[in-house]
Amino acid sequence: MDKQFIEKIKKKLLEKKEEVLSSLKKEVDEEISDVESDSVIGDIVDEANNVYELQVLSRLSQKEQEKLEEINAALQRIEEGTYGKCVVCGQPIEEKRLLAIPEARKCIKCKAAEERMKIR
Question: Count of domains in the chain?
């Protein structure tokens, strides 16, 4: 892979990272706002709804945290010079796949095999 392609991917990864961090910050700000307004209301039904909402937000945040870890891992692979190689078979990952999913760790063949195993 040429240096220009790697720089393009690195830029995409950093943009994705910023999106995830902004989304997480927005969720935390909303949680704080909800908690502040709840302390005024104090209604049991509202509390139950808030607990449910916090559970949903924590799941979303976990998914976003996983995405952030994938992005950071891809940036680390760029620094190590191993970016673009499948972590399973060691073969190069197609550039079209990396452009679509810059944090991809597996080639299409290995990812498809993994998905088939999940279905079983």
Answer: 1
